[in-house]
Amino acid sequence: MTLDKKIHQYVWWVLQEIKKESVATRSDKDVRFEPGRDDNLHPEIKEQRRALKFLEKEGVIKIARACYPMDMLALQADVLNLKPIKYFLDILRPRFDKLFKKYENANILQGKFSGNLNKDDFINIRVKNGELSLNKATGLVHYCETVKQFNPISQEFKIILKLVTNKNNQATYADLLNPLSDTGSNRRTLATNIKNIKEGLGILPKRKVRNKDLIENIKKYGYRLIV
């Protein structure tokens, strides 16, 4: 893998973390970003900081405040060669959203950081109210302006994947319930799974709705994507 591609992987990973945190942050508050977990599933901490500086240079974020160990001032930390342990960011839209989309469409890396790229894991389709993209390997789903990390082996993610890949983007109750039997009790469980998907993608609850509906029930048949 080339150095250039690795750098863009780091940037894409950080973009996704900022996006997820921004969804859970009030619009009048700065978004928190905390570099961490220096392991084989995440970029090195120094690379996360490097990506953050790149994003600030690109004009898509502004570092409003950097926090150092033991609440040190920046000058004190610099003398001791200590790096910030967390940042509070101002997201500069619409430039942030445009760059996010650029990286997403480039298929650089979806979900967790990894040294291996597999374009076959990435699916992107146009639906009635926006775009829906997902990664089959990681469970990351992006619908309109919402990013949700599902467990890739969860029933919720399996439902989304089936509706995306099935013909006409629809599936019967039995197909979605498989290997469970199509009973009234299991259909109620299925309805709960659908509700969980909608809550994760900002469709429910109604008082906090961010996106228009994505999945609808076909009476006496099953469910389909609204395309």
What does this structure look like?
The chain has 227 residues and is an alpha+beta fold. It has two domains: 3-100; 118-225, Winged helix-like DNA-binding domain superfamily/Winged helix DNA-binding domain (Arc Repressor Mutant, subunit A, Orthogonal Bundle), CATH 1.10.10. It is built from seven helices and ten strands. It has helices spanning 3-23, 45-57, 74-79, 95-105, 155-165, 173-177, 184-200, and strands at 31-33, 61-67, 86-91, 122-127, 130-135, 140-143, 146-149, 170-172, 215-218, 222-225. A four-stranded antiparallel sheet has the order 4-5-6-7. The longest helix has 21 residues, at 3-23.
Topology, pairings included?
Layout: H1 3-23, E1 31-33, H2 45-57, E2 61-67, H3 74-79, E3 86-91, H4 95-105, E4 122-127, E5 130-135, E6 140-143, E7 146-149, H5 155-165, E8 170-172, H6 173-177, H7 184-200, E9 215-218, E10 222-225
Antiparallel strand pairs: 1-3, 2-3, 4-5, 5-6, 6-7, 8-10, 9-10
Helix pairs in contact: 1-2, 5-7
Summed up:
Helix content is 37%, strand content 21%. By secondary structure, it is of the alpha+beta class. The strands form 3 sheets. A 4-stranded antiparallel sheet has the order 4-5-6-7. Strands 1-3-2 form a 3-stranded antiparallel sheet, covered by helices on one side. Strands 8-10-9 form a 3-stranded antiparallel sheet.
